[in-house]
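1st attempt posting a full record on here, be nice pls
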Amino acid sequence: MTQPRAPHPGLHPPGATTSGADPATTSGPGDIHSMRPGGFGAERRPEPRPGDAGTPGAGGLLFSAEEYEQRLAAVRRRMRDQGLSGLIVTDPANMFYLTGYNAWSFYTPQLLYVPASGPMTLFAREMDAHGAQRTCWLPEEDIVGYPERYVHRPHIHPFDWVAFALRQRWEVAPAAHGCIGVEMDSHYYSPRAHRALVHGIPEWTLVDSFELVNWIRAIKSPAEIAIMRQAAQVTTAAMNAALNAVEPGARQNDVAAAIAHAQAAGTAEVWGDFPAIVPMLPTGEGADTPHLTWTDRRLRSGEPVVIELAGAHHRYHVPLARTVMLGEPPAQLQHTADVVAEALNEVLETMRPDVPVAELARVWNAVLSRYEMVKESRLGYSIGIGYPPDWGERTISLRSEDEQVLAAGMTFHVIAGMWLDGIGYEVSEPVAVTATGVERFTDFPQNLIRK
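the predicted structure (as tokens):
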């Protein structure tokens, strides 16, 4: 993808003896020769501007160039605040947020390197790097593919190659004066990946970035909120499909199929993206625990069916949960539904800028305590961009221990789930905090749905 350059004398790519030929002397796509031109003391290229690269990704920006620049500037301010001279991003949601890169490539190691200044570099598997310019706005010379021979090998790791490639691109020395942040709690950053970077770049001190980019994502721009409103249309279509499919005698997998079809089809105006989490359908006695999916079990009269799903559009997710009762509900379930509706509405009425998150938990718990009920789990979490296995942002949680304060532009899945012995009830609201309160993304009734 880039012009060849000779490797620096004395430095050889890792794994040189594993394929019968030294990668330092072997040409071909993805080899170390494909690093950008330069040398010790070479001036760094100017930072590319989103939209200027002349690639399909740069020509089809989802957001304005100014918004992408603001995101990167916010990340770098936080990097300075945390004493970081560089940042390694492995969460695909964060890569998408900063560059627009979007593909099902996260099952193999990949990273985005963000220096304190200058161009970012995206490293991915060679076959994925070739197509990254179709969604990513980075110039092709800043999209680098590692060789196929590094995929799924027991004794070498792709980040062995990436570590040397960062050195070839003269990124190591400029960042060696400070710490380099890595996403220690990312689903996509393995112990072997970390070991490869530690061994490959001993000059760097790798430290936890503490979800640095995730926290920048917590407050959405008006353009992001607009996309989430579109995602909510997909959510509405998927939930309606679920409610139509849930009936006595229906198989759980057929209900899941109806949901999945609606999630992909979306509406005539808004297409559906793939969700980060599959539909969840705790049923009957199994409704007393969340996160169960489906089998070919048939639904029966006299049992509840919990439905939790999300609509997605351009990777932005709007989750929603409702509970359907097939027949007359038991008194305990109806009572739980009534209490949850009261508590949920009081929480939503409390939400507005400058309200501490802990206050929402206090309001919720105060209502439950009047009815001698307790909810041990959190009340909700921040949402937005999502990739498997999670549609949450892994930052703000609605619970009494959280010290965050609400701000306009934050978006949450407020999930009022009650899981008791042998019985369960779940209803949720996806919302955006506005200047005066909250905006509900969907308008489904908050009561127990009877069929």
